[in-house]
Amino acid sequence: MAITDWPAGERPREKLLQRGADSLSDAELLAIFLRTGVTGKSAVDLAREMLTQFGSLTKLIAASQKDFCAIHGMGQAKFVQLQAVVEMARRALQEEMRSGDALNSPGAVRDYLKLLLGGRAQEVFMVIFLDAQHRAISSEELFHGTLTQTSVYPREVVKRALYHNAAAVILAHNHPSGVAEPSQSDRMLTDALKQALALVDVRVLDHFIIAGTSCLSFAERGMV
Predict the structure, then answer these.
(1) Using CA atoms, how far apart are residues 170 and 156, in angstroms rounded to an integer?
(2) 165-208, pLDDT tens digit by residue?
(3) Backbone angles phi, psi at 144, to 5 degrees
(4) pLDDT for 27-57, tens place per residue?
(5) What crossing angle do the helices spanning 26-34 and 12-19 adopt, rounded to 10°?
(6) E strand intervals along the chain
(7) Which of 194, 110, 208 is nearest to 157 (CA)?
(8) How far apart are CA 221 and CA 21, in angstroms?
(9) Which residues pair with residue 210 across a beta bridge?
(10) Residue 143 pLDDT > 70, yes or no?
(11) Which residues contact 111 (CB under 8 A, 6 or more apart)?
């Protein structure tokens, strides 16, 4: 059945207008982005199929152009549109962090990190550099590794903190395994970075581990 044949209150667009975007499922939101389905499948059916194939909305967003365009009905134009939407969301979250105290808007920090790191297949270590008022100055992906290990050099983190004249930092990395719990090496790395940055009067405010849609805070665990 075509979406136009659904009851008005159940159509994704009408539902969004009546109840707000947060009332829609991942498939319904994706269906609005897709606009149309393919022969024999409505936009919602196609959206559900795509989410099943990639495993989650986060992984779909992080999919390569080749994998995305391999889906029947998808192409370069739709891939470009999706990347543009994702980048706009990232920049909006960056602006929110920069306009106020990052510690007073933890939701924006978490959303930004999950959007940036949640679907990555490779482990990535990044740093958000903050000024004395804890407003974000910049964020950088400093190290990339394999699926299981990343080599992080405290000296390089210190150099970038000095370059940005940062007063504090928020550390973050992802666990492609999908488990957000910190390992012993994660704890040791955090301690090493705290000690190195303390030598130049830069505080480590938090260290986030992103695993899919999960986000663990070292500060909330009392580990920073």
Answers:
(1) 15
(2) 999 999 999 998 888 999 998 999 999 999 999 999 999 999 99
(3) -130, 140
(4) 999 999 998 888 888 889 999 999 999 988 8
(5) 120
(6) 124-130, 136-144, 168-174, 203-211, 214-217
(7) 194
(8) 32
(9) 174, 215
(10) yes
(11) 93
- Helix (H) or strand (E) holding 157, with range, is helix 154-163
Q: What is the pLDDT of residues 59-82, one digit of tens each?
A: 898 889 999 999 988 999 999 999
Whether 139 contacts 129, CB under 8 Å:
yes
Residue 128 pairs in a beta bridge with 139, 170
- pTM (two decimals): 0.77
Contact between 219 and 208 (Cβ < 8 Å): no
CB 200 within 8 A of CB 165: no
CB-side neighbour CA atoms (13 Å) of 206: 20
Alpha-carbon gap, residue 78 to 31, rounded angstroms: 12
The DSSP code sequence of 117-145 is HTT-SS-EEEEEEE-TT--EEEEEEEEE-
